[in-house]
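Subject: design request, 226 residues
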């Protein structure tokens, strides 16, 4: 029994270590904790790539490190499983900074689409309807989806057709800004629809008419015909 417990513990420990390592793996498949560089490189020979990407050749690590130091750069082992291991001369700190900068810029370009909810009542008056409709238009302009909801209370459940009329009116009033992603649907005592922002066609510019062609002046001194 003790042996089976030890095997279970060893398997759990291995699973935890494997998942923990996978979270720390970089895009290049190299664990940042185990990157060897400079004096930590222990191979007898390494294949060296220069800081401009050129192939330098195979040499002992101390010679490659000397070349890197002459340029005030680092020697980084980028492929430890190759035979021999591959190292590159680079500014490792700058390399990490540029990677982090690219990741930040990529996150900035990502547009997070949220769903904003606007609630209507079946007895909504024109002024309140226009106010809520303007909210829907503003959310669509900002690139968000809109969930228009009508909540029926008590006896209002017998007047569901009024709720559908309000939502159909809303669809028609905002069709120049939004697309219907989900038609009005009933869920319990709630009726709702989903509107998505319309993709801008890019605002095609109107082509300017070509300037009129100017007729060339008649030749001087030529005979004129009636």
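Subject: RE: design request

Done. Sequence follows.
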């Amino acid at each position: 029994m003790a042996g089976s417990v030890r095997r279970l513990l060893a398997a759990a420990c291995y699973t935890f270590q494997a998942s923990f390592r996978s979270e720390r793996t970089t895009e290049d498949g190299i664990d940042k904790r185990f990157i060897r560089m400079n004096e930590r490189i222990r191979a007898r020979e390494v294949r060296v790539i220069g800081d401009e990407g050129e192939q330098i050749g195979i040499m002992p690590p101390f010679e490659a490190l000397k070349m890197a130091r002459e340029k005030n750069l680092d020697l980084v082992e980028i492929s430890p499983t190759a035979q021999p291991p591959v190292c590159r001369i680079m500014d490792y700190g700058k390399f990490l900074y540029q990677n982090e900068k690219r990741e930040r810029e990529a996150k900035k370009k990502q547009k997070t689409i949220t769903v904003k909810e606007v609630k209507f009542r079946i007895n909504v008056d024109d002024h309140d309807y226009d106010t809520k409709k303007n909210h829907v238009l503003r959310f669509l302009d900002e690139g968000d989806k809109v969930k228009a909801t009508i909540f029926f209370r008590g006896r209002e459940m017998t007047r569901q057709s009024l709720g559908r009329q309000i939502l159909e009116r809303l669809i028609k009033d905002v069709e120049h800004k939004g697309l219907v992603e989900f038609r009005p649907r009933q869920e319990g005592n709630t009726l709702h629809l989903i509107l998505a922002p319309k993709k801008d066609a890019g605002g095609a510019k109107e082509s300017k008419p070509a300037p009129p062609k100017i007729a060339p002046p008649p030749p001087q001194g030529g005979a004129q015909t009636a």
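The first strand starts at residue 46 and ends at 49.
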